[in-house]
Amino acid sequence: MKSLQHVNVYTVEEAVNTLREFQGEAMVIAGGTDITGVLKDKLLPDYPKALVNIKTIPALSYIKEESSGIKIGSLATLSELSKSPLLQGQYKVLAKAACNVATPQIRNMGTIGGNLGQDTRCWYYRYPHSLGGRIMCLRKGNGPCLAVAGDNRYHSVFGGQGCFASCPSDTAVALLALNAEVKVTGKWGTRTIPVQEFFHPRGNSLKKVELIQEIQMPYLAEKTRGCFLKYTLRKPVDFAIVSVAVLVAMEEGVCSEARIVLGAVAPGPLRAKKAEDFLKGKLIDATVLEEAGHLAVSGAKPLSMNSYKVEIARTLVVRALTDCAFD
Amino acid sequence: MQDELQEALKFIGKETPRKDAGDIVRGKANFIDDIKLSGMLHGRVLRSPYPHALIETIDVSRAEVLEGVKAVLTYENVPNWKGGLPPHVGVLDRKVRFVGDAVALIAAESEEIAEEALELIDVHYKALPAVYDTEEAMKEQAPQLYSEFPGNVFPLACPWMGPDSLQEVVIGDVEEGFAESDYVVEGTCAYDNIPNPLPIEPPGVIANWEGPEDLTVWSSTQSPYFLKVILHYAMGRINVRSIASHCGGSFGTKVAPWQLAFYAAALAKVARRPVRISYSKEEHFAAYTLRLGSRFSGKVGIKKDGTIMAVAGDWLINAGYCSDAAQGMVAVGCGEVQLMVRSPNWNIKPKLVCTNRNASKMVRGYGGQELEAAFIPVLTMALEKADIDPFDFFKQNYVKPGDGYYWRDGNWWVSRGINYEKAMQEGAKAFGWKEKWKGWLQPTSIDGNIRTGVGVGVHGNADVGEDVSEAYVRLDPDGTVLIYSCLSEHGTGQRSSVCKMVAETLKVPLERVSLAPPDSEVNPYEFGPVGSRGTYAIGAAIIRAAEDARQKLLALSAPYFNSTPEDLDTKDGFVFLKGEEDKKVSWKRGVGFDRTCLGYGRFEPDFSVPNFAMVFVEVAVDTETGKIEVKRVLTATDVGKIIDPQSLQNQLHGCLGSAGLDTAIYEESVLDTKTGRILNSNMIDFKWRTFLELPVFDSVTLETPVQTHRFQSVGVGEIMTSPAPPAVLMAVSNAIGKRFNRYPLTPDIVLEALGKCQKTEVRSRK
User: FRET partner for B206 with CA separation of 20 to 30 A, picked from A133, A279, A327, B188?
Assistant: First the structure.
């Protein structure tokens, strides 16, 4: 790893000012479970001059309930989310998603802000510089996406805009189902972005002098049940091959509201709107849920090696809906 | 006599504390990264971005002037040393042959400076077409890796195994055999996921020149003396002193890290200071050692009663960009397949091919695992035709005392080992094989979308007595015992186990026995603990040395008793008259305070004792998601006599890791055949089992005495990975009723077999 400056900051304002001082040549570090790997492997052509450590900002570490819903400081760790007594009922999908990330050690270090802001796991993008040089690609600003003609078993099955990397975040899937918003602060002040818009086809909408400050989750009107499922090759450690978060409101066997989000199949978490619309007002039975599963993956455009992800996504949607509807 | 010996045993077969356990736990054990020499520099390797290219120009001038840089080497100024078999790999070459091949070497005051300097080297390459597939590589138009190996095919001779080393299995007349068969099946299976056995510690070597012809190397190795021999020949007959650190796992891959030694020694020569080359985990993944790629295409003829009449086929072996004794693995693989199948007629023709990817070198399983994992799925097509239970088949076929086989030296050997039928029978009983086996392609149970199935595999080698071991044992007058053996500790506890053998032989407390450091300047020749040979071959040499020392002790003490050595015995550091234990004299008084007794022992190769392992597995397959869960594993073996129960248990558990069982479900190196890059060179994307996902694991281990050495024991450590991969393939096939002819069975492959997703583009990573 190259040497760089490590600057502790104590307020959000100080963090923004420090990022400004380095004129875009500094990166934010919180838990560091992702960025340390990015730096050690020298994935990116530009190496930062400094890391701005925001772990030292005490005011960013909270999970609290307000009249409008639940607010989570960006430094809340994944372990804290997994165990929080406030994440009950519909919010349980977030606790479950957080609990499904990596290993206990990583959940103790990793934060919700970092889980949203982490870089993609595309193995072309992540190829270490020490083994013959990093691979440049569209996401890095220059070059083709090698996954299209290469080994794309873990890549997007819902297309991409020149880049077919999928979003690795587990919490993003739950947060989109929960209609959450991301509050970010930068040199132009503070803005709030719906989770859907936070992710871009080639990354996220965070600017270089910006950091995630808070996650806000509104109350959902209906009494809903939730389910989060994650498919991996191994139980611990792995990033999702497919994940699914589902929220369903039922009244006497009829679905009044459904939110279905797929993870690791697209550049960001993906809402399955067709399936959601189909379910609304339906008397729920196994046939209806099967159909919803098909609709959830309709429009998928798998690459040469990953059509299996479509089938797994379909199965997971049916299983998650079944869990919510009949549990 | 036998019963007396067994009853009297104090250490053998008993739980005793491992000698180095405390040091490891307290951080006192010296691994290669703990060795810091005064003035030591740090070496780094610049690696090729191309799978195949010529270096047109290379400019190191900017790197040379960076402060802290002490040596920069390119192909233009490296010594003319050659490794591989036959010798074909230099320190650096103008031609690079895989992504990650070494282009330049740098030694600097710190790792950071060395890394910075790598960025300052300007190289222009002329890219050449690359080839990754064995069949493609042998075609006429294929890119040629070495001018000396036309067609990209290596010669199969393995001189250090003897002048007639085994290069094929040809016995009888296969055409006659097929004619006499009731069924003849034909098929192809690939075991070419080139997994990385992945010991925890990446490889590392430190080199220092004590004089122009005198080199000392410290390395994390399984075989320090063998490394000395290899370097001596590869580096122009220089004197090499080879010292092993504690080795953080090897699984065969660190037997002889000559390439790292080349780099460190070449840099040290220029810098005139010690140089350390320590690979990163990424280099360990993509530029060190993979398992051989293997593909079997052939025919098996069988009679209705399950008798195999003929086996014929091509065995294609992918060695990657170089052969580091892959010929030895071909020889042993050809031997091992004969141990597991009894057939009057054979014709297996191996082809060893080089391709533009990281090299496949020595790995636990050593040829047999690679051949059998590809061959057994073809064999089982024949068993299915004849409706023969695979367990019954293996029990019938596995080599029995009196059966013969061609072994690696090309000679016909006859087994004088154990009849393993009893171990198989007891293993099957403990597993419940007869209840769980429902026939070929039949699940054991179906519960909604979950189907379970069972499989069984068998493997063994006759290498437990391979190669030479020598040892000295020194009895000190103070009653302590020192073993001189160039046996390094690579994680199995073997250094501790040989102390038990000596303590038992000399009847001294275990804590009085210790080993000299694994240093070739101190100890006699030792091939190393490979091929499960630690227990028999190394053990025999050390036991003989202890017995020799004991004889000298008794002879020297005899005058004190006015007796003959035959009437004397020794225990706890005293010599006494047999039958009159109270008439005793301490070693010191018996031989004098100024005398040590030095015994010598030597073991000569003996290929007449095959060992054996059988693995039973039960898997559950989710037919909706293609996920495979290994529910239960049971190993069955017979070890003659257990030396150390805990070490044995660790070896049995080893069937799960180190490119063993899990190569059937997810362990693989993902080679991108568009760029030549290995894409999963990290601990997340390379799928290996974690401790949180261990299946139910049982073992049946019998102890049937076998004529090896004093303790009648036979080693099984190395072989435990090998029976499992085809057993898992069999179990999954049975669970879902579909045959497979490739590894690993990732969910895409399973769902495709079930017709639930589109056919995946064939991954040509051969």
Answer: A133
